[in-house]
């Protein structure tokens, strides 16, 4: 017997779809809803570290992700000079195990489609363009009303609905989401043959200039600057700003810049962070993924930590017979310290750049590899 027989999952990102897959496959009745109109509306490029790949294998989607993404096992550091000189090639930690790549870059909508299709195949009932409107819980369950007028009663509600979580707000949880002081320009472009892994450039007009291959013919590139209000820029203005900032970077950036012609591929966001202190649940409602913890992408661990939340929560729901404090205490013990340390390390990497100090990056990266290599 499992701790739950019916679950509502709010949010069809990595945390939500992974939870839906693992529970539905075990025979739990799962409804998965997302406010977005369809799966294709879920982003651009994403970098996935080995500990994320380990969960994908558990979900039964690793083979497809391996086929659709772009795997690599090292990180390049280039100089902000006229040649984009490669100054270091660093083997990347295989945090998912020796039989998995260190890193996979992927087109985010493709990843979202794979996960949603897998959730549907596992038996979850998936509804897009649907949001919760109200929830009321008692000792035995949670009654939820949806934006389309329908309703349902569940043993558990999982809020995997992102940084601005509706679920968190509905529970009355106050959590400050803080800008770390950096903003990032991103674009999705064709992959030059010279781009075969992530390379980073520190210095120049931006804190970081980097890129990640996402497939045989695709990649995304990014420029990290001081956070500023870019909301008034038109798409054409945004493209012009990114092209101008990129002028300082060379090597593969010279080819990337030639492809920077479509304003619709450019977007700008701030780096943000928060961590919800334990407990992450209020009765029979729990928040996971970005709703509970979010970090800047300096360690590329956002999706990985969300997936680990889903794997641990599902394991406990399926192995315990009751939804009680023992279950929640075990969940918190396995997830809160680990996710908190990842957020703090991600913020620290950016803070060193903001402060213009030479932090001990090798030591930090080694500590993170040691933390993340054992399963959550």
* CATH H-tier superfamily of the largest domain: FAD/NAD(P)-binding domain
User: What class would the helix/strand composition place it in?
Assistant: alpha+beta
Q: Unreliable stretches, pLDDT < 50, 5 or more residues?
A: none
**Shape estimate:** globular
> Percentage of helical residues?
25-40%
Give the number of helices: 10
Quick one: how many beta strands?
20
The overall pLDDT average reads 97
Question: What is the domain tally?
Answer: 2
> Which H/E pattern describes the elements?
EHEEHHEEEEHEEEEEHEEEEHHEEEEHHH
For the terminal residues, how far apart are their CA atoms?
24 Å
CATH class of the largest domain: Alpha Beta
Query: What is the percentage of strand-forming residues?
Result: 25-35%
Oligomerization: single chain
CATH topology of the largest domain: FAD/NAD(P)-binding domain
Gist of the model:
The chain is an alpha+beta fold. Helix content is 35%, strand content 29%.
Fold and architecture overview:
The chain is α+β, with helices and mostly antiparallel strands and 376 residues long. It has 2 domains: 6-70 and 104-176 and 272-372, 3-Layer(bba) Sandwich (FAD/NAD(P)-binding domain), CATH 3.50.50; 181-271, D-Amino Acid Oxidase, Chain A, domain 2 (2-Layer Sandwich), CATH 3.30.9.30. Helix content is 35%, strand content 29%. The protein has helices at residues 14-25, 50-59, 62-68, 108-122, 166-170, 235-246, 252-259, 302-319, 325-355, 361-372, and strands spanning 6-10, 29-34, 45-49, 70-72, 74-78, 86-91, 103-107, 125-128, 132-137, 142-146, 151-154, 156-159, 178-190, 198-203, 206-213, 218-226, 267-275, 281-282, 285-287, 293-294. The strands form 4 sheets. Strands 6-5-14-15-16-13-17-20 form an 8-stranded mixed sheet, sandwiched between helices. A 6-stranded mixed sheet has the order 8-2-1-12-19-18. A 3-stranded antiparallel sheet has the order 3-7-4. Helix 1 packs parallel to helix 8 (302-319), helix 2 (50-59) packs across helix 8 and helix 8 (302-319) packs antiparallel against helix 9. The longest helix is centred in the last third of the chain and has 31 residues, at 325-355. It is globular, with a radius of gyration of 21 Å. The two termini are 24 Å apart. The model has no long low-confidence stretch (mean pLDDT 97).
